[in-house]
Input
Amino acid sequence: MPRVGDIIRSPFSFLFERSQKEELVAEYVIREHHGGRPLQEIVKDAYIANRLSPEQLGRVLERPDVVHALGRDFDG
Output
């Protein structure tokens, strides 16, 4: 829950913030992919399922840094 002071300073900043969980999962996806695992396998890991909803995972997979790191494999 945002603090009152944060809301007063920037009432819409929460729309642009990435959660720490999303950051960690993005790093995990990139690391695992660079280790040679296919994306279809990585997204089924319990590590991801225990941290993010399907909607959050979708946001992670749409991030420019993740798309760039995954390259052609992002499409399937």
Observations:
- The first helix runs from residue 4 to 9.
- The two ends are 36 Å apart (CA to CA).
